[in-house]
Amino acid sequence: MFSLLIHLIGLALLKADQVPLNNGADAAHLCCNTLSEKLPSKVHFPGSVEYERQQYSHFLLQQADMQPSCRVSPTSSSEVSLIMKTVTEHSCPFAVRSGGHSTWPGSNVQGGVALDLGLLNSIDVDEEKGVAQLGPGCKWKNVYAAMEQYNVTTVGGRMPDVGIGGFFLGGGISLLSFRHGFGSDNVINYEVVLADGTAVSANAASHPDLFWALKLGSTNFGIVTRFDVLTYPVKEVWGGIRTYPVTSEQTPKLIENWVSFARGAATTREELQALIIGRWRKGGVDEIATIWHASLDSVPGPPLTDTPPIDDSTRTTTFLNLIDDLQSSDFADKKRNKWDAFTIKMDAPTIWDVFNGAKRTFDKLEHVSGMQWDVAFQPITQGFLTASEKTGGNPFRKVLMESGDDLALISFLVSWKDAADDETMYKAIAELGAWSEELATQRGILNNFIYLNYASGEKPVYARSLSKEDMTRMKSVKRTYDADDVLGRLWKGGFKLPKDVPETIFESSASTEL
Ligand SMILES: Cc1cc2nc3c(=O)[nH]c(=O)nc-3n(C[C@H](O)[C@H](O)[C@H](O)COP(=O)(O)OP(=O)(O)OC[C@H]3O[C@@H](n4cnc5c(N)ncnc54)[C@H](O)[C@@H]3O)c2cc1C
Questions:
Q1: Ligand 1 centre from 171 Cα, in Å?
Q2: Is there an atom of ligand 1 within 6 Å of 428 CB?
Q3: Residue 298: left if φ>0, alpha if ψ -120 to 50, beta else—which one?
Q4: pLDDT (tens digit, 9 = 90+) per residue, 473-499?
Q5: pLDDT tens for residues 192-224?
Q6: Mutation probe of ligand 1 site: the residue of 117, 121, 167, 491 with most atoms within 8 A of C-beta
Q7: Strand 113-116 to strand 70-72: parallel, antiparallel, or no bridges (unpaired)?
Q8: How high is the ipTM of this complex?
C-alpha cells in the first residue's frame, strides 16, 4: 500500500508529457484515484457491483474481456469536461461508451479509464420546433417511447437497445433513411467536449466545420454530450419480418425481386429495409432468407415472392412496437461477435454469390460452438442519398455517389460462444470479406465505402469512405480541434483518421461496368 502511494505521488509529480505512454496502466491508476476524489460515487473499481454491471452490459462479450482500471459515470457535460482534462493531463488511456453496442471491442479499454455515458440519458422533445435534445446514453427504445407521446419519431436505430452515441457518430441507418438520409444528416447541433476539455456547440452557424466532421466523427474530435435531432410525424406503421427457407430455386428469384423493389417502389411506397440471409437450422430448414419490412405510412407491403413464408411477424402497430419486434431476431443476443461490411452496386447475382461464399465458409466451421451467421443486404438507393443531402450533407456521401447507382450495403454478422474460437472466426471472416470484395471488384461493382457502424475494427474506414477533398477537409478540422492528436493517442477504440493515405485509394470506385 505504502509503495503504491509513493508510486502515485511520484507519478503526480511528473508533468503530463513526462508520463511515458507505455506506462498507461500506472497513469490510469493515477487518473482513477484523482477522479475518485473529484467525483466521489461516480468512479467504479474492479470488483464493485456497478463496475461488473457496466462491463457485462456491452453487446459484445469481447468488450468484457478488457478490464479498465476504473469506470466513470458522469452525469453532466461539465463532469465529462473534468474527466477529459484529467485523462489528458496525466496521459491516461481512455475509452467512451454510450449504448455499448459497438460491433467490435471499440468502447472499452484495457487498463485505462472507461467513461460510461449511460447516465447522460435525458430526452427533451420540443414539439413546436420539431427538434429533440438527446443525451448520448439514451437507448433507442427510450427515445421512441418518449417521442411516441408527441406522435413523432426520428432517424434512429432499428433495435431498441442500441445506443444513440455511436449510432450518430458513425452515420446511422434507420427505418426513415429513404426519406431522411442517415441519422447524422438529421443532427442539427452537437454539444461536444473537445480534447482540451472545453465544451462547444457545433452546428451550421457555430463551428460549422466541426459540425460537418462530427457526422462521421467516431472518436476523433471530442466526446458528444448532447445530440439535437430533427423529429418527424409518425402514427401507425406497418412492418415486421417475413421468413423464407433458402433454396437454390426460390432464393435467387426472391433476391431479384428485393433488388427491383428496392430500386423502384421502396423509396416512394414502402420503406423496405434489409434482406438478411443466414443460418437457421430449425425444423428441417438450414438457412433462411428474411425480408425486414417497414412502412411508415402503415401501408402493408406486398410479399416479394409467391412462396408462403414459414414465419411472418408483419403487422400494423406503433413505431416502438415495430422496433421491439425486430429485436426478437437472433443476432440481438449477447455473444462473442464479429461484423464486417462493404458496399456494391445493387446486383442480384452477386448478392446470391456472396451468400453462397459465406455458406461455404461457415459450413466448414460447424464445430464452432454456438455459431450463428447472417449476411445482411441493405439498400442505399439514389433516393436515400438524395434525402441525405437535404440537411447539408456529410463527409461520406460523395464516395457513395461515385457509383451513380443504387447500392447494397453488405455486412457479415457472426457470433459464437467461446473465446477459444475467436482467432478461427476472425480469420474466416477476414478471408470471406476479402474474397467477397475481390469478387465485386472483378465484376466492376465495388463501391469503396465501408459503413463505419458495421465495419470490422481494423478496416480503413476513413481512407475508403471519404473523397480526397473531404479527407483534406477532415484533417484540417482535426488540426483545428486536436492539433497534437491527443485523442488519437489516448482515446482507445473507434475509427481514427489515418495519418497517411495512399493516393490510389481515392481512385473512383465501381468505374467499370458489369
Ligand atoms: C444489435 C445491433 C443492431 C444495430 N442496428 C443498427 C441500425 O439499425 N442502424 C445502424 O446504423 N447501426 C446499427 N447498429 C450499429 C450501431 O449503430 C453501432 O454499433 C453503434 O456504434 C452503436 O452505438 P452505441 O452508442 O450503442 O455504441 P458504443 O459501443 O457505446 O460506442 C460505439 C463507438 O462510438 C464511440 N462513442 C459512443 N458515444 C460517444 C460519444 N458520446 N462521443 C464520442 N464518441 C462516442 C465509442 O467510443 C465507440 O467507439 C446495430 C448494432 C447492433 C449490435
A1: 10
A2: no
A3: left
A4: 999 999 999 999 999 999 999 999 998
A5: 999 999 999 999 999 999 999 999 999 999 999
A6: 167
A7: parallel
A8: 0.99
